[in-house]
Amino acid sequence: MATLDTTLTVLLVARKGNALDEAQARLLQMNIDEKASPSPGSDRRVYVGTTLDDVQSAFDQAAKEARTIQHVFVGAGLELELRLEIVKEAISRSGDTCVHLKDATSGPSGFLPFIQAVLGDRA
Questions:
Q1: Helix (H, G, I), strand (E, B) or coil at 10
Q2: Is residue 2 included in any domain, yes or no?
Q3: At the top level of its lineage, which domain of life is listed (predicted)?
């Protein structure tokens, strides 16, 4: 697996809506816009989903692409039981995956800042 400096693979799971779409678009845009001269092998993949089936599909697709999902970001708008199932699925699929649960207080507009705070320079 490539180092975190050159490869970033994340899964965003939240209710459908602007926050999920914006976060995916921004993470992908930063890969294009802010790396005018990317290093060889520099790569970013952002999977998105709203259900447990989507999470399973993302892990399956990542495996087909020979990737490891490094971070799973789970929005607070999902029901608690679904959030717990997502955590269980992610950690059972990969010992290399970090799962991050967003707080409810900051609302949907806090989803992207939360992701950026966790990823730091890699966002």
A1: strand
A2: no
A3: Eukaryota
Q: How many domains does the chain have?
A: 1
Q: Model's pTM, two decimal places?
A: 0.86
pLDDT tens string 64-90: 999 999 999 999 999 999 999 999 999
Does any domain span residue 103? Answer: yes
**Are 24 and 73 within 8 A, CB to CB?**
no
Residues 27-56 pLDDT 10s: 988 655 544 444 445 589 999 999 999 999
Residue 1 domain-assigned (yes or no): no
Kindly report the CATH number assigned to the domain that includes residue 24. 3.40.50
Return the structure tokens found at 106: 């900051």
